[in-house]
Amino acid sequence: MDILIIMGIGIFVGSKFFPDRHKKKNEKMQIVCTVLIIFSMGVMLGGRENFIQELSTLGLTSFLYFLIPTVLSTIVVYLLTRIFMKKKQKEKED
Fold this sequence. Notes:
Elements (H helix, E strand, L loop, with lengths): L1 H16 L5 H24 L4 H43 L1
Helix pairs in contact: 1-2
């Protein structure tokens, strides 16, 4: 999570405060840093002793981290849309 925060701050600072003449350099540097982070994460995971055995557990955990927020968000948006769209339609009819 710390990595994402640092990358976000870097992107914000680079896009808001760097002069336009350095924009291309900043974009290239962001790509290089992203590739290095992905590479280092791969090395870290590959260095685990039981990585192959843990892969199914990691995959299931990742899938649940995707599935649960997606389903719950969809349900909340659906319910809120139904509630507020009914109110808006009633206001239009009046």
